[in-house]
Amino acid sequence: MWRNDSSRKKSSSKQTLKERDVRHVRIEDVSALYEIYEFQEEIGHGSFGIVVSVVEKQTNENYAVKIVNKYSTVVHQLSKVYREIKILKTVNHPNIVYLYKVFESAKKIYMVMERCRGNLKEVFENKKPFSEKTTKKIIKQLANAVYYLHKNQIVHRDIKMENILLSKNPDNPTDLYFIKLSDFGLSVIKAGSFIQGMMHDRCGTMLYMAPEILLERTYSELCDVWSIGIILYTLLCAKYPFADRHQEELINQICSKDPDYSPIELTPDAVDLLKCILVKDPVQRSTALEILKHPWLMEHKLKSRKDETIIDYMKKWKSEMLLPGHDSDWMKISESDISMLTGLSINIGTTNSMKSGTSHV
């Protein structure tokens, strides 16, 4: 199994994003918005509100407005809405939905965001399964967005196909799969690194939830990576890796069973990436950055290592074996030793190596 542990330290470097200059305007009631926007049909719903299509009268630009009723939202849920606004005011990434303005009255909150043309789940239901080429395009964008969030101490916690919107690609108008990650209603900004950054509350959508969340253990941002794996498998295989109408059996599958790869006609690289992501133990699970560096997305083939010998393997690490100011011990191995070792083969191609460190990124 492919592994790039060196990216874990780099991906965990803490960064602080500054809030963008997003207008947050207090209004008396919705009539103030009717002067600015023409309200159209409801196009969806988020974690704590409905989403309506609007057209700005002055510019004729299309937007989506998420409307949250403050009185029908309990206090602790309302705090999550303000947290979502804080996160969206901060992030700025081509594959994350963009927040333009916020209007707030005594009764409601209106979040004006970019208008997209639907979500991935709707398209998937009509075109499943997706080709590896199309899936690569989607997963690469999604992993990029998630890596950006994690690098900036943000965990989404509800990544699913319904929350992946399809938008216009400013660089390629013919691109049908330019994605935007949306709905940050369950997202959090980590309190710190390592233990301080771990989370405890059980939330998300069960089909996409990581085992550690379902088992009510502390968990890290790697719960988002698990969700990427669920989407990757589903797009390629036209079915969820774990599915059951009964919640108890679904939890059992997610926590104790492996996905079925046997009837699936996928390239070895695609299967390898799935096996790097859908790992029960988050300590061994790939990070978002490691996904981006995987051969399946890097467009170079994963070399088979089944027939490698110890000699071949040691040659790869020759530079690391050489101490400063010394000749390599490798160079001192005798011909007879080489003759003996060459006959031994090792299989490191399917070994799931334990990652260094802990699950606290």
TrEMBL record:
It catalyses: L-threonyl-[protein] + ATP = O-phospho-L-threonyl-[protein] + ADP + H(+); L-seryl-[protein] + ATP = O-phospho-L-seryl-[protein] + ADP + H(+). The keyword tRNA processing does not apply. One of its GO terms (molecular function) is ATP binding. InterPro entries: Aur-like, Kinase-like_dom_sf, Prot_kinase_dom, Protein_kinase_ATP_BS, Ser/Thr_kinase_AS. Keywords: ATP-binding, Kinase, Nucleotide-binding, Serine/threonine-protein kinase, Transferase. Residues 37-297 form the Protein kinase domain. Belongs to the protein kinase superfamily. This is Protein kinase domain-containing protein.
